[in-house]
Write a structure and sequence with these properties.
The protein has 464 residues and is α/β, with parallel strands linked by helices. The protein has three domains: 251 residues, HUPs (Rossmann fold); 111 residues; 50 residues, no CATH class. Helices cover 53% and strands 12% of the residues. A hairpin with a 2-residue loop joins strand 3 and strand 4.
Length: 464
């Protein structure tokens, strides 16, 4: 599997997060089904935008690229995205790119002009096959520049002549650097061969990037580079297209200061990967609520599992009914992901399992504790599978609730000392049987968004 990675000139935004989480689940699910997966995801570490940033900061392009690769890796770790098998950089594969361009030139499909090299689209008759675009229609809509070096306005660059004071590599066409599209063709062939199983990326890469990859690779090898092409849908921001010109690009590291990282990950998985998603505070709040409900069920499971109780010798129908239903949900979960990685349906199984566990531990009063323990062991195993494949519910419930509360306290500007003081006052009022005062304090906390939970061992609080 090959997935197009970032151009390392800025921090990752929510669009990068969508693609990363989508293909992370593809990677996880295929491995869970017994496949040995080689997952390649590249870094573009030389590009006009990287050079522009380096010039603006008065530093080298390599320093810019390394900085944003490091920040990208930190963001991916926060989102529980597993490291790919191989993470190649463009600058490490200049020889592979030059070799491919030379092969295209030898076949008469690439042509040099004053130090640049272009791919001649009219020599590749199936150009447009991936995107469904017709060559004549594209030509009719193309803007022709009279000063353009290209023979055809649709021809794309394979090698770029370096400008003054730009980084360069030596090549048969002079000093320069590769065009963007040739990078992925060279690196995918280097690690996965002429044809591999899955090529992925965002929907915005279908044309021209992936279309150009197919053209240049197939023109060299005579083979289609990938058996399956997967593209995740766009991220919209409050129903608007995300773009820097609109000022609605949200960096991942800013989002996870406002929400638990698993809430962002869960939000990404609540829609099928090919569908667009609409990012907003409301959608993240809803994802957080769903995540919290699941962790609440896991917390109940953890507390109920605390004491090791030997299972009853005689099985009860209720126990078998719960175990059968939980196993059915596990099967449906796997089937949903087998069917074009439908994470929305898979999460439906997770939420249903959480409701079932809540019912078992709160409503099933007559079931012996030993019987419940048998169900819990099955449930723990199933949730571990859900967690491994989706990359969520990977924290201890207590750790999750503490981290989530800390984020919400900071976001809302709450005073924890004041909250603790009010809780202490309420406990004193309850001890004095001053129920009216205790209720008034609870209401005051409720206005702040603080929810109390009383138990035999004390009172805990969360922010909702």
């Amino acid at each position: 599997m090959y997935v197009c990675g970032i151009t390392a000139y800025d921090v990752c935004h929510v669009g990068h997060a969508r693609a990363a989480v989508v293909f992370d689940v593809v990677y996880r699910h295929l491995r869970s089904r017994g496949y040995k997966v080689t997952y390649v995801k590249n870094y573009t570490d030389i590009d006009d935008k990287i050079i522009d940033r380096a010039n603006a900061e008065g530093t080298g392009f390599a320093e810019i690229a390394e900085r944003y690769i490091r920040l990208h890796d930190e963001d991916m770790a926060a989102l529980n995205v597993l490291p790919p098998t191989i993470t190649p950089k463009a600058t490490e594969h200049m020889a592979d790119m030059i070799s491919m361009i030379s092969a295209l030139e030898a076949k008469g499909i690439a042509y040099p002009v004053d130090g640049d090299v272009f791919f001649a689209v009219n020599h590749f008759p199936v150009y447009g096959g991936l995107s469904g675009r017709l060559l004549d229609d594209m030509l009719a809509g193309a803007r022709v520049d009279v000063n353009d070096k290209k023979k055809n306005p649709l021809d794309f660059v394979l090698w770029k002549k370096s400008k003054k004071d730009e980084p360069f590599w030596e090549s048969p066409w002079g000093q320069g650097r590769p065009g963007w599209h040739i990078e992925c063709s060279a690196m995918s062939r280097r690690y996965l061969g002429d044809t591999f199983d899955i090529h992925g990326g965002g929907e915005d890469l279908v044309f021209p990037h992936h279309e150009n990859e197919i053209a240049q690779t197939q023109a060299v090898t005579g083979k289609s580079p990938a058996n399956y092409w997967m593209h995740n849908g766009f991220v919209k921001i409050n129903a608007e297209k995300m773009s820097k010109s609109l000022g609605n690009v949200f960096p991942v590291r800013e989002i996870v200061r406002q929400y638990h990282p698993e809430a962002l990950r869960l939000f990404m998985l609540q829609s099928h990967y090919r569908s667009p998603v609409d990012y907003s505070d409301t959608s993240l709040t809803e994802a957080r609520a769903a995540l919290t409900r699941c962790y609440a069920a896991l917390k109940l499971m953890k507390d109920a599992r605390g004491a090791a109780i030997e299972a009853a010798a005689t099985p009860l129908p209720a126990r078998f009914s719960y175990i059968r239903k939980i196993n059915e949900l596990n099967d449906r979960f796997d089937a949903a992901l087998d069917d074009d990685f439908n994470t929305a349906q898979a999460l439906g199984c997770v939420f249903e399992a959480a409701r079932m566990i809540n019912n078992l531990l709160t409503a099933e009063k007559k079931m012996p504790v030993s019987e419940k323990q048998c169900v819990l062991e099955t449930a723990f195993s199933i949730f571990e599978h859900f967690s491994d494949v989706l990359g969520v519910f990977q924290s201890d419930p207590d750790v999750f609730f503490d981290a989530d509360r800390e984020i919400e306290v900071k976001k809302r500007g709450l005073d924890e000392e004041k909250i603790a003081h009010l809780i202490a006052q309420r406990q004193a009022a309850r001890a004095d049987k001053d129920w009216s005062r205790a209720d008034d304090i609870r209401k005051e906390l409720d206005v702040m968004g603080v929810v109390l939970k009383d138990s035999p061992v004390g009172t805990t609080w969360s922010v909702e």
